[in-house]
Amino acid sequence: MAIATAFSLKLQILFIIFCCRSYFSTAFTSQDYADALEMSILFFEGQRSGKLPSNQRLTWRGDSGLSDGSAYHVNLVGGYYDAGDNVKFGLPMAFTTTLLAWSVIEFGSSMQNQITNAKAAIRWSTDYLLKAATATPDTLYVQVGDPNMDHRCWERPEDMDTPRNVYKVTIQNPGSDVAAETAAALAAASIVFKESDTSYSTELLHAAMKVFDFADRYRGSYSDSLNSAVCPFYCSYSGYQDELLWGASWLHKASLNGTYLAYIQSNGHTMGSEDDDYSFSWDDKRPGTKILLSKEFLEKTTEEFQLYKSHSDNYICSLIPGTPSFQAQYTPGGLFYKATESNLQYVTSTTFLLLTYAKYLGSNGGVAKCGGSTVTAESLIAQAKKQVDYILGDNPAKMSYMVGFGNKYPQHVHHRGSSVPSIHAHPNRISCNDGFQYLYSSSPNPNVLVGAIVGGPDNRDHFADDRNSYQQSEPATYINAPFVGALAFFSAKN
């Protein structure tokens, strides 16, 4: 545990530096972004399920879910808890993995000494997704844990005794949305590991191909097949067409197999290409798909991809104040605002797309066409920076919404493991009902979930640092994943 001890000392030093620094100025340095990057990746260690490794840095966590899947004769140990609960939801976990991988693909060269940790965060998930995808033919395991029972308890993962039911999609009960997203995650990750671990990369890609074929061949929404288990938690409101195109796009990028290009050309126009009124999230992949595919047009001026460049422009222009097609909402303090619940998930995903599109445009001398006006890559970067800086503390409340960063950040995070005394501080089991005293306590969380980005403030920039206000105070893996790429980008800027 020498590594963990050394890291704890480093963490203490970082906290001292932050507590002595005022964030009333609007400027963050590249070192600030680098520190936030380290924390944003560290957060994923707090979400780990399974047997923790010897180099685990958030040492208040312990092993959990070590028998997941065993009652069903399948090994489903590992993966991530999605947010503040103890359920392993396949759809948001796969999306998280895709976005972590995309962050490394686009901005890994700026991650410097954090690239190893970023890859470890991806691999913790892909090791699990591989098991879920290959354990049984024509089957994808998509969830571990009964969410209704889990949400009736407030207990740390190390103690959980709620049913660890296993849910799957099959030929008879399809789930094209979750399967295609899993294929996207495995394909994107295969690109990340292509040079550093060729055999693992090949294994990921082959699994991605099989899962995508399963998703496309047996079409249907997992919300229909597994309604009571996945709804209302992670219903696929957008349907499964967007995931099929998203999955095919990542397989095209990862495999360079003409089959996937043909699939995109044949099916793209029927899978949401004409609709620009949307946001990028674990549920809706349309904006991300279009920006991913627009790169082909920008690099090769390939005619069949011009559609994706046009619709990427429409999406991006809707976010930029002053353009003819501007329609996004922002708080008085300048935060992109989409929803009352976990709004920062949309901020981080949108920010990532702004920066990725700026990179694609900048590398090819392009601009976003907004009606009769144009928007440059520099303008997109400036808009993204406002969102990143707001999250880190440049906002009316002078509150950093990343736990552990800055001199003022959320203390009452809606998260079981963080809010209940750790197994080291309190070795005796804390039961399902006994844990609620910690949910309702006014004391700060005893375990700092370093790097966690919470749901964030409301549309008037107001934030209730209240554990019971889960809409504002709950973190999630899919909030952090795209922010990893954004922080890497700004950490490389002087």
Write the layout of secondary structure elements.
Elements: H1 2-19, H2 30-46, E1 88-89, H3 90-107, H4 115-134, E2 139-144, H5 147-150, E3 166-170, H6 176-192, H7 198-217, H8 222-225, H9 227-230, H10 241-255, H11 258-267, H12 286-300, H13 306-317, E4 329-330, E5 336-337, H14 344-363, E6 368-370, E7 373-375, H15 377-392, H16 416-419, H17 436-439, H18 470-473, H19 477-491
Antiparallel strand pairs: 1-2, 2-3, 4-5, 6-7
Index terms:
single chain; 494 residues; two-stranded antiparallel sheet; 19 helices; globular
What does this structure look like?
The protein is globular. With 494 residues, it is mainly alpha-helical. It contains 19 helices and 7 strands. The strands form 3 sheets. A 3-stranded antiparallel β-sheet has the order 1-2-3. Strand 6 (368-370) and strand 7 (373-375) form a beta hairpin.
On the 0 to 100 scale, the average pLDDT is: 92
Strand content: under 5%
SSE pattern, N- to C-terminal? HHEHHEHEHHHHHHHHEEHEEHHHHH
Assign an overall shape. globular
Number of helices: 19
Number of strands: 7
End-to-end separation = 35 Å
- Quaternary: single chain
GO biological process, one term: cellulose catabolic process
Protein name: Endoglucanase
GO molecular function: cellulase activity
Enzyme class: hydrolase
Summarize the structure.
With 494 residues, this protein is mainly α.
